[in-house]
Specification:
The protein is of the alpha+beta class. It has helices spanning 93-106, 133-147, 174-178, 206-243; strands at residues 25-29, 37-43, 46-57, 70-77, 118-128, 157-164, 167-170, 183-189, 194-200. The strands form 2 sheets. Strands 1-2-3-5-4 form a 5-stranded mixed β-sheet. The chain has a 4-stranded antiparallel β-sheet with strand order 7-6-8-9, with helices on both faces. A hairpin with a 7-residue loop joins β1 (25-29) and β2 (37-43). α2 (133-147) packs parallel to α4 (206-243). The protein is globular.
Length: 244
Amino acid sequence: MSRLELLTPEGLRVDGRRVNELRKITAKTSVFSQADGSAYIEQGNTKCLAAVYGPREVRHRNQALADRAIINVEFNIAPFSSIERNKRSKSDKRSLEMAAFIRQTFEPIIFISQFPKTQIDIFLQVFQNDGGLLQICINAATLALADAGIPMLDYVCACSAGCIDKEPVLDLNNLEESAETPELTLALLPRTGKVNLIEMESRLHIDKLAGVTELATDGCMQIHTILNSVIRQNTEHLMSRLNA
């Protein structure tokens, strides 16, 4: 599909959204009883489960750090998650890259100095991939960490944006990504607006960077409202159970 077909003259995209419109997001926490914290997110047709364990004893004592916890991230994508049925192992280069991005995003945000000689494990499983993998994994991890009660500076909210026919567009789906649309993923802290991650794998003209970044920032703030609502609803539910 050519880029011309990705955006109609009326400004509508292939899935009917406007250029500045997020895909529908549904999320919930405490979905996995064996984990210390867990969350499930659907953003459009992309679906991800996050589970957090810890802080707990380090598996290999020689890796323990005396002054802080270590963050371990494992990312896995199901073979049936997309049309291309490629089996991807945890040691796959792309999976390792994704895990590294997520670990680097959360290391400065979690109060790891409060938990010396321990580790915090974040497991991410993607069941369906329709674009925006990195952003949905970061948002799922944020919810799961909050659900586990692990102290953080702030939420970390992530969103992607790109450029179709020189027009900035928000939250690309898989079809738009597959058309080699220039795209960046932005993660920030909503209270301060501090950018915690910018990831971009394709070229984007410098003249379009400000507009695309501004759109991604706006998407992050919209996502923060949704994630905050999910956490508040779960907290209220737990409080009602305790008071029953």
